[in-house]
């Protein structure tokens, strides 16, 4: 993490870097301005999975912090995916706006803010457009909260993006399918396809319609299908942590001891990834968050010289998968 120690002169003027942020003191102005200064950011070269978290996570974060991380993937043909830990909590918004304590995601190349979050609602997954992404955290001098935030980052192959200057209807089927598959809600799909009339299209989706059946006309009222829920079910249950039994001797690679019980249940990623990424031919369910948990078991070891068995309770630590994600392993993509 990177702490900004920013001196403020007596004659300094206050100007927040965004119109909806509160700049109510010289120290806060300096904090907000410093969070926008590229020279204060910490550059993280991303070659494998990792995390960025608020100080003291999952406990109360300190006051008056401005932390900036810029994540850079080694390959320009690679994107960076950010997944927020389910434990998320910053100071609550005011009038629906994160004015005081917040975490913010920015596209460095374009300078566009992908999102700013606070409160207790966990943000959704974010994917960079290029091979860089910036994370910014600001807390003021009042009301620190807990647990703060923890962001898991991982690399994903760069997918073909449609030309934004060309109407979606003119894209090829492959390009359009890839673009649509990246949206998480049906509303986002409609906004992309028809930005000027997407709300009308949403209404038309669920209007009752007449259906011809043979020579008769029926009028079955169209039920409102929750398409977002269907997509979310696939995300939640296709590739998930599941109970697996593992042999302790095999898992720990111990041939000098006997354990009882000899097998234990652990959480490991399982399931399929049929809709991982369009065009990916080798998509695998892989762990996105791994923890080590301790289990107390009986251990039996032969004493030297044939003096019987040494019996003791011992702690063994086993790998558990807490979160899973579908990862494209096809090296030919990109």
UniProtKB/TrEMBL annotation:
Residues 239-331 form the Platelet-derived growth factor (PDGF) family profile domain. It is found in: Secreted. Keywords: Cleavage on pair of basic residues, Developmental protein, Disulfide bond, Glycoprotein, Growth factor, Mitogen, Secreted, Signal. Residues 23-156 form the CUB domain. One of its GO terms (molecular function) is platelet-derived growth factor receptor binding. Its main location: secreted. InterPro entries: CUB_dom, Cystine-knot_cytokine, PDGF/VEGF_dom, Sperma_CUB_dom_sf. GO terms for biological process: platelet-derived growth factor receptor signaling pathway; positive regulation of cell division; positive regulation of cell migration; positive regulation of cell population proliferation; positive regulation of ERK1 and ERK2 cascade; positive regulation of phosphatidylinositol 3-kinase/protein kinase B signal transduction. GO terms for cellular component: extracellular space; membrane. Belongs to the PDGF/VEGF growth factor family. This is Platelet-derived growth factor C. It comes from Scleropages formosus.
């Amino acid at each position: 993490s990177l702490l900004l120690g920013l001196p403020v002169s007596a004659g300094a003027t206050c100007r927040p870097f965004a119109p909806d942020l509160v700049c109510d003191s010289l120290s806060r102005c300096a904090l907000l301005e410093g969070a926008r200064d590229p020279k204060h950011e910490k550059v993280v070269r991303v070659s494998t999975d990792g995390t960025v978290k608020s100080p003291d996570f999952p406990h109360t974060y300190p006051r008056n912090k401005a932390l900036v991380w810029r994540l850079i993937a080694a390959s320009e043909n690679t994107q960076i995916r950010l997944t927020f830990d389910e434990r998320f909590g910053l100071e609550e918004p005011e009038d629906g706006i994160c004015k005081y304590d917040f975490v913010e995601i920015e596209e460095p190349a374009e300078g566009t803010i992908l999102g700013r979050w606070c409160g207790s609602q966990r943000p959704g997954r974010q994917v960079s457009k290029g091979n860089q992404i910036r994370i910014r955290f600001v807390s003021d001098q009042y009301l620190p909260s807990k647990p703060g935030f923890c962001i898991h980052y991982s690399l994903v192959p760069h997918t073909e993006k449609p030309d934004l200057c060309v109407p979606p209807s003119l894209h090829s089927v492959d390009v359009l399918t890839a673009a649509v598959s990246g949206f998480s809600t049906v509303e986002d799909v409609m906004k992309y396809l028809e930005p000027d009339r997407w709300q009308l299209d949403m209404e038309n989706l669920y209007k009752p319609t007449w259906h011809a059946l043979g020579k008769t006309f029926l009028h079955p009222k169209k039920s409102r299908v929750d398409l977002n829920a269907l997509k979310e079910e696939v995300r939640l249950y296709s590739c998930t942590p599941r109970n697996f039994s593992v042999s302790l001797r095999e898992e720990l690679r111990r041939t000098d001891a006997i354990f009882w019980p000899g097998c234990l249940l652990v959480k490991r990623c399982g399931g399929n990834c049929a809709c991982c990424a369009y065009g990916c031919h080798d998509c695998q369910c892989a762990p996105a968050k791994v923890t080590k948990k301790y289990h107390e078991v009986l251990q039996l070891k032969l004493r030297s010289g044939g003096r019987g068995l040494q019996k003791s309770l011992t702690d063994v630590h086993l790998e558990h998968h807490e979160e899973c994600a579908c990862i494209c392993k096809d090296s030919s993509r990109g």
